[in-house]
Amino acid sequence: MSALTEKQAVDIVCLKCGIKLTLGKTTLQYLGTTFPVELYKCSQCGLVYIPEELANGKMQQVEASMEDK
Amino acid sequence: MLHEHPGGLGLTEQLIKLCGFSPGAKVLDIGCGIGTTVEYLRDVWKLQAIGVDISETRLVQGWNRTPGLPLLQAPGECLPFADATMDGVIAECSLSVMESAGAVLTEIERILNKNGILAITDVYARNEAGGFVPEYKTCKEWQDILLQHGFSIRCWEDRSNLLPGFLASLIMEQGILRLGLESIKKVKPGYFLVMAEKATREDE
Amino acid sequence: MDQKTLREREARCIQGNPPGCITRCPIHVDVRGIVDSIRKGNPAEGFALYHRMVPFPRIISRICDMPCQQGCTRKEIEMPIFISALERFCVNQNHTAIAITVLPRKDKKVAVVGAGLSGLTAAWELGCKGYIVELFEAADRLGGSLWDISEKMLPRQAILDDFSVFAKIPLKIHYDTRIRFLDSLLADFDAVYATIPLEMNEFRLDATAEGGIKVDPVSLATSHKKIFAGGSLRSPIRADSPIALVAEGKKAAISIDRFLQNASLTANRENEGLSNSLLCPSTKGIVPVSMVAAADPVNGYTKEEALQEAGRCLLCECMECVKVCEYLAHFHKFPKQYVREIYNNLSIVMGIHRANKLINSCSLCGLCEQVCPGKLNMGEICHQARQRMVETGKMPPSVYEFALRDMQFSTGDEFLLTRHQPGHTTSRFVFYPGCQLAASAPGHVKDMYLYLCSKLTGGVGLMLGCCGAPADWSGNKALFQETMQAMQDTWRSLGAPKVVTACPTCYSLFKQYVPDMPVETLWTLLDRIGLPDTKTSTSKKLAIHDSCTTRLDAELQESIRHLLEKMGHSFEELSLNRKNTVCCGYGGLMFLTNQEVANKVIDRRIHESEADYVVYCSMCRDNFVGQGKQTYHLLDIIFGSTAANGALHSPGFSERQENKARLKRLLLQEVWGERMEKENNDMKLIISEEVLRIMESRRILIDDVKQVITHAESTGEKMQTAGSGSYIAYFQPANITYWIEYEAKADGFIVRNAYCHRLTIIPENGGRK
């Protein structure tokens, strides 16, 4: 179960560390609330990848749901 | 990776601390899912923790993660344990999704030892002008049903601040429409933590 | 907003109140609804509405005296709607049996004396309520004086058909029974309704001066608690009004029902009977059309005739503000309801704030107040609601963030500029062009400043800055006050000169919040001192769009007309002009909070006239040009830059910021001979039109892109999809995280994509990236 779909399991390389990104636990925060999400990230330096569809889709839904409260 | 319930293992830790089980205590996690809590209780707190869940799919996921986890398939209304064999029962966000909380509580009371502990974290309906959702019990309804089934409440705490983060995680996983959240928005649920003790004859 | 204010505001909105045809009907038949049903081709619905109130539809629709017509707005135009004929049409169309609901039987007995319209109505209503009713009638048939009406007007069969409903209730009828004394009735019945003259010497019922029985007009009670009296007994005049008799019967039934349940006879009965409507529909521009006459009056309207007469109905309601405001129309309700929603929104302690969008989409322009009979101002309500939300921490940060960030730029070092005129150490005037004119037409700022310097003596200073309108409109009182204070301090530092504003919004805010500061608009000033000597290119006819923030400033509006005349331009007025002008979509930051409504607003406005528009606010110009309308700012005409080519460009967000910064540098250099150290941000970006459009819609500035790329290139923190040449990098300068996909080339960076989000990524080690 992941925030990403299978389609988005692309090959992305972290150019700083020279290694491929793998799924890992990341913490997101907004308006004082933190929550964990599974995202592709560099296991070495922690650089995270958020695809456009996620940013414009579910992340926007989360933002809206938290703002209306 | 994701929290299985609001508060995740952080909240489980708080709950266990309140219960004060000794190492080796026999504790049942009811609605254990993929067994994250059972594993945690065994590894970190050295409890003899077992889990039951009605979903075979989730249990299989749990065994794939950690082979050999003591998980059983059973409904909450019919627990495969003899009377008075458990020191504690934990129900994290599981009673509210079971068909009959009353029947489950009867079973829990049966399998607990004298002075056994029941620890629950779950959703409740906060009274407010927005309307109500019948599936969510209010604080009073929770307390009443626990009392009716032979438990005395030692500790009740509100943990509603954990809900927004949990909701956010759910949306990230499934998207807002899949959850049908638009209609549930009519009421703002709360989240609570309760530690109750099986009442002895003298207490009643 | 407290409860009291809520009710006061709700009361100002008269929409939802019934029109005159309903309020002047003694039994409040939904006349408007019936006429509307006919227009919709649904006479069955019309019949249902009619029969809900009228127990004898076939009779009443033929003989009703129509007091409702006194309340018909068309009465003022030519003739009221022929309402009973339309009702009769619905009755004629009905062929299904009328469904009746009779409540469970009660063990109380009521006697009704006299089977005229009033008595029959009372008997019917009480019977339906479950009471045991006995009707005493001297004749051998029901209906009283109905039988005196001509057969042509009231066919006997109609009477019989209507009265056949009495078979459906437990009603015992005593024909050929004349009651003269009530004592026997009082023994056997719990209540009596008398509609015929009674002997006075029995109960010593209180009498009126004229010798009739004293009857309470609200409840029809007499001085004997069980006896109620009404109908033709009470007033001979009433006997001529069938509908009044029906109303009387209903009134008696209500009174008896209450009496038998020990409830108050008089409480909450204000709505019974006639009243005037609170609506005041306008008759302006309605073409007189004569009433439709039935070709066959005996049988009534045909379908075509009914449709035609129903077509004359104005379906009276208010909705004056909704008619002129796309924002009010967009949410499909009307102000009375909106006010309640906003009140609820502000009262919620925890829960979903459903009305946030409603509150944040209003342009605050106040047009509604100008057209509302009750002078309700939605802008005032929304503005206060926003302030409350900000105070209580309920304003979602994303709503106004971009506007406030833009304002921050306009009050920051890259734009702020304060100078006396070159060669002067004091200023008698100061030119305050405003931030949007600088963003959109920086050249005009310079040209006008130089002109003012040449024309006015005593020194003309210059102040570049922002008056704080975005802070005010977003409900951020503290920030607004801070900004205003800073502006005032700067103004004082120049020696408190007279402020000349080019922007109507700056002008209106200064006048409202800094009344001690002498301020004048550029336009009234130019009207006085004269225009620069530039030849205007064409003298085509222009339509004037007045600014909404100065809707009440008639002098300013006049000066605009004078200036156009002086420049040889003919102009036309739009129908919503001067104090009734519409906002262009910039007001209240609508174009940022609700693009959808803003587009509707702009679209409607630009189609009001075929002519090109002239405006005197830079944002009005940009908003109209942005949707393809040829619009000139007054300065375009004054400085002769009305060439058709290149005119239809509305600068995007990045360009606006760049223009502001460049204007400051330009003025310092060319007017004051000072060189400003420019931030070395010489990164060359290559961005296609499509990506620019995407950035614009996502409110991503070129500056933001540069920050991400700079961060990525300097830290090496970037990613790459296997097999692609593009880099992916992200950076969070303040609240928003920007993602850029780009390629590095020898001569610059090609930007392939840009997106952003507000959820913050928390790095593992806890620090902020």
How many distinct folded domains of chain C? Answer: 6
**What do the pLDDT scores of chain B average to?**
85
Specify the CATH homologous superfamily of the largest domain in chain C. FAD/NAD(P)-binding domain
Oligomer: heterotrimer
- Arrangement of strands in the largest sheet of chain C: 3-2-1-4-5
Number of DSSP strands of chain C? 20
CATH class group of chain B: Alpha Beta
Structural class of chain C: alpha/beta
Low-confidence stretches of chain C: none
Largest sheet of chain B: 7 strands, mixed
Can you give the helix content of chain C as a percent range?
A: 25-40%
The name CATH uses for the topology of the largest domain in chain C is FAD/NAD(P)-binding domain
Shape of chain C: elongated
- Helix and strand run of chain B: HEHEHEEHEHEHHE
Distance between the termini of chain B: 43 Å
The CATH class of the largest domain in chain C is identified as Alpha Beta
Q: Let me know the average pLDDT of chain C.
A: 91
Q: Outline of this structure?
A:
With 69 residues, chain A is of the alpha+beta class. Chain A has helices at 52-56, 58-67, and strands at 12-14, 19-20, 22-30, 33-41, 48-49.
Walk me through this protein's architecture:
The complex is a heterotrimer of chains A (69), B (204) and C (769). Helix content of chain A is 22%, strand content 36%. Chain A has 69 residues and is α+β, with helices and mostly antiparallel strands. Chain A is elongated. Chain B has a single domain, classed as 3-Layer(aba) Sandwich (Rossmann fold). Helices cover 34% and strands 26% of the residues of chain B. Chain B has helices spanning 8-19, 36-45, 56-65, 101-111, 139-148, 163-174, 181-184; strands at residues 26-30, 48-53, 71-73, 86-92, 112-125, 151-158, 189-198. Chain B has a 7-stranded mixed sheet with strand order 3-2-1-4-5-7-6, sandwiched between helices. The longest helix of chain B has 12 residues, at 8-19. Chain B is globular and about 45 Å long. The two termini of chain C are 42 Å apart. The longest helix of chain C is centred in the first third of the chain and has 19 residues, at 242-260. The mean pLDDT of chain C is 91. Chain C contains 32 helices and 20 strands. Chain C is α/β, with parallel strands linked by helices. In chain C, helix 3 (31-39) packs antiparallel against helix 4 and helix 7 (117-128) runs parallel beside helix 10. Helices cover 40% and strands 11% of the residues of chain C. In chain C, strand 16 (719-721) and strand 17 form a beta hairpin. In chain C, the strands form 4 sheets. In chain C, strands 3-2-1-4-5 form a 5-stranded parallel sheet. In chain C, strands 6-8-7-9-10 form a 5-stranded mixed sheet, with helices on both faces. In chain C, strands 15-19-18-17-16 form a 5-stranded mixed sheet. Chains in contact: A-B, A-C, B-C. Chain A binds chain C through residues 10-16, 20-21, 26-31, 34, 42, 45-50, 52, 55-56, 59-60, 62-63, 67-69, and chain C through 350-354, 356, 396-398, 715-723, 727-728, 730, 739, 753, 755-765.
